[in-house]
């Protein structure tokens, strides 16, 4: 039993350190878990005054842990709800030791967003989107055990891709030398007005790691 546990730990460490070097410049697959309200996690859009919490951190965290990195879509897309998309180049964030950005041997940790989910409440002239995302943090060759906090930017754009509102989020994950892969999930709500004559589906919510974070490269 002890030998099996040791083998698993060594395999995870190998995957983490080797994977960091090989996927440094590669994007992450992203999938969507949900598209609206009602009928559980795979329900359709709704106009209920109090949306049920079908998007929750536990489901997102579980999905992230089960994800193999392929990013296979997991839900129907509802045209009546604003889309949730990982921003270009925002699906991953690599943090290096000071002054060594781009050096694979200087990686401290790397964050990856692998799953997203959202549902919405639509009212006359206003939309509330309950959105969530999850992913993982991998400890690098120069990383330290402890809690890793990574900043995430959130923005909403209209049909012309003009930004109408924004938010910031921080995600935490605890990594250890003998457990170099940790997972995170978060769920937030953002509300915005929509002009008369527009449809909620014309709007889009973007989430992505802040590429200007200290040590990013």
Short description:
The chain is mostly beta strands.
List keywords for this structure.
mainly beta, four-stranded mixed beta sheet, disordered N terminus
What would you note in describing this structure?
A hairpin with a 5-residue loop joins strand 6 and strand 7. The relative contact order is 0.22. The strands form two sheets. Strands 1, 3, 4, 5 and 8 form a five-stranded mixed sheet that branches. This protein has a four-stranded mixed sheet with strand order 2-9-6-7, with no helix packed on it. It has one domain. The chain contains two helices and nine strands. 14% of the residues lie in helices and 40% in strands. It has 217 residues and is mainly β.
Q: How is this fold's topology laid out?
A:
Layout: H1 2-22, E1 31-32, H2 57-66, E2 83-86, E3 92-96, E4 107-123, E5 126-139, E6 146-157, E7 163-175, E8 181-193, E9 204-209
Parallel strand pairs: 1-4, 2-9
Antiparallel strand pairs: 3-4, 4-5, 5-8, 6-7, 6-9
């Amino acid at each position: 039993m002890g030998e099996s546990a040791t083998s698993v730990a060594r395999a995870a460490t190998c995957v983490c350190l080797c994977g960091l070097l090989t996927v440094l410049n590669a994007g992450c697959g992203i999938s969507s878990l949900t598209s609206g309200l009602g009928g559980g996690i795979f329900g359709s859009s709704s106009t209920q005054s109090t949306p049920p919490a079908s998007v929750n951190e536990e489901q997102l965290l579980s999905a992230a842990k089960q994800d193999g990195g392929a990013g296979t879509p997991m839900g129907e897309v509802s045209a009546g709800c604003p889309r949730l998309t990982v921003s270009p180049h925002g699906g991953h964030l690599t943090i290096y030791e000071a002054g060594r950005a781009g050096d694979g041997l200087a990686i401290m940790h790397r964050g990856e967003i692998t799953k997203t989910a959202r549902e919405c409440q639509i009212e006359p002239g206003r939309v509330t989107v309950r959105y969530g995302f999850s992913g993982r943090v991998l400890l690098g060759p120069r990383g330290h055990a402890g809690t890793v906090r990574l900043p995430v930017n959130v923005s909403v754009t209209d049909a012309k891709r003009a930004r109408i509102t924004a938010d910031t989020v921080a995600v935490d994950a605890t990594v250890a030398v003998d457990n170099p892969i940790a997972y995170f999930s978060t769920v937030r709500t953002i509300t915005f007005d929509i002009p008369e004559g527009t449809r909620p589906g014309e709007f889009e919510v973007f989430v992505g790691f802040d590429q200007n974070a200290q040590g990013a490269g």
